[in-house]
Amino acid sequence: MLLQALNDFAARSAGQLPAAYYREKTVHWVLRIAEDGRSAEVQGEGPLPPKRRAEALIEQVPHVQRSGTKVPPYLLVDTAEFVLQVPKSATGEAEEEKAAAEAERRHAAWRELALAWATQAPDDPAAVALHTYLTHPDTSRAVVPERVEAKDMVAVRVGPQWLHTLPSVQEHWAGEVRRRKGDRTERSGLCLVCGTHAPLLSTIPEPIKKGAVPTAGGSNEGQLISINATAQGRQGITQLANTPICHTCGGRAMASLNHLLASDRHSRRFRDHGAMVWWTRHGTSDDELGALMNDEADEGIVARAIDSIQDRPTPYAVEAVDADLFHGLTLGLNNARIVVRDWIDVPVPALRANWGHWFAEHGLFDGWTGRTQWAPIWRMAQACGRFDGARYVKDSAPRGLEHDLLHAALRGLPLPARTLPLVLQRIQADRRIDLPRAALLRLILNRPFDRDGTTSVTNTPEKLDENSTDPSYTAGRIFFVLEEVQREALHNLNASLRDKHFRTAMIAPLTTLTQLTANSIAHFKRLSRDNPKAGTALMNRLTALQDKLDRPLPQHLTPLEQARFVLGYFHQRHAALEAVAQHKKNKGTGTDAEADGPSESESESAS
After folding, report:
1. Cα 408 from Cα 423, distance rounded (Å)
2. 8 Å CB contact between 271 and 292
3. Do 30 and 44 touch, CB atoms closer than 8 A?
4. Among 234, 307, 322, 572, which is most buried by a count of CB atoms within 10 Å?
5. What CA–CA distance (Å, rounded) separates 31 from 156?
6. What is the DSSP string of 54-96?
């Protein structure tokens, strides 16, 4: 199914993909042959410094995986060791002789392959010129600059013509790759991808490009299918003997995969390791889905996703139903082998609905701006790491969590079980309560593990629930009010209630809040003297919250109750921020209104 979907993508994206067995590479030097083939010169500057990387010459050129000591050449475009017979650097006379002999062997192999193409295209002036340059005894050979190194990439031109772009070169190279990668016995059979009878591959000719899949270890090219040990194959058979794939399908699938990995529009690289590529069958929804997949969705896209939850097509609208399919492939790298971590294959309307549930279940009201905000998935994963007082510490987030959160969003599943203890642990440790952490807690509460997987269970609201009598939620609201009482009574605090007591309050609210309420009496006395209006308002608010408790505060809270405590605190804080923002707006319009809540300097805590 995976290879079939990649081949379908290749069929609809033929104009965007490189020729068969071609890959994008940086060309450092050009061997420019005269149009009569009697002379040539080496042009170029060699590898450019990082500051000039944007000026580099990048071309789609022949490529196939090669290994071993006697590696074969690429057609026309190859390293200077092959094209110009430049030996590798060596120390010692014996090593220098060995390097020179290997450079001579490689150049001879490159020359043989180039002539094989040139002799098959006798009517092409460029092929005639190349043949003349390589075979005529009176040809003036190109002078190789001293700066040319053996590993530098060299391309060939005849006059203004790049030889590797000629259709005859592309066709000849494809045939050469099939010869190299085909079964030694010229095996043919039914391809499991396209279902046609054709010559079959013995190995996949195209690896995934080095660096395309981030990894914690060393980066290598990776093979999607690799069976090179008898223990790996069925009945001890190696390579693709039990996985029949024809040359066309194998080449197209890997060309598509490399193209998707190189596309910012169709790939997402995870910050710890691994990458995800995605595409759709028809491509009509790619712009919208690309924004969702890369955390770039604006309010309009989010609104449409949430609206899609309510879509209920009637029998008369069957013909208008979107039949497009979404394909998502998550990859990792283990040495030189690609690991398929996840494969998603769902209708686009179902995916839109899953995204709609995701946003509806984690969005939170921002009191300072008066709008609902949503947290990017990478920020949610980062929020489970350590906060040092100014920012989240790099690489402190749990490994693989970003992928797990994206997986939950795409499939409409509950969050990983480890997420709740991770968030609570970090909140207790650094007392940072921001949008990403609160959004994770709301998602966890709205996606219980016993949900049926088909309907949303959005019980925890995005903003303050004034009617809630839940003790843990109300305890969080009470803690914020007590914090406000302290802040209004005592200015220029070195450590607030949240700094000193939030951890114990979210675990054991009865003991902690009872003690803090008793301590607030001194603060209310000071407010009655210095700011009686604020003191009265805060006392009324505290009393109203205590009256909502139809039973005593719990002695200890479970992890889910701790999550509700934190959300109660977060919602109450943003309700206060909303009051302050409205107060400032009213002052600007001349309709002043009373508002009690954090000062403007406190609004930064809403970020």
Report:
1. 17
2. no
3. yes
4. 572
5. 5
6. GG-EEEEEE-----SSSPPPPSS-EEHHHHT-PPPP-SSHHHH
| Residue 485 near residue 520, CB atoms below 8 Å | yes
Structure tokens at 279: 């595409």
Query: Contact at 8 Å (CB) between 535 and 528?
Result: yes
Name the token pair of 528: 């009655």
Structure tokens at 215: 């990894």
Rounded to whole angstroms, the Cα distance separating 129 from 159 reads 10
206: which 2 tokens?
């195209």
All residue ranges of the chain with pLDDT < 50 are 313-321, 453-457, 593, 599-607
Sheet of 325-334: strands edge to edge?
Answer: 267-269, 275-280, 325-334, 337-347
Query: Please, are residues 583 and 594 in contact by the beta-carbon 8 Å criterion?
Result: yes
Q: How do strand 153-158 and strand 29-33 relate by DSSP bridges?
A: parallel
**CA-CA distance, 384 to 397, in Å (whole number)?**
5
The CA distance from 225 to 339, in Å, is 9
What is the rounded CA–CA span in Å between residue 246 and residue 266? Answer: 26
The pair of structure tokens assigned to 516 is: 């803090």
Q: Report helix, strand or coil for 392.
A: strand
pTM of the model: 0.81
User: Do 446 and 422 touch, CB atoms closer than 8 A?
Assistant: no
Confidence (pLDDT) at 109: 96
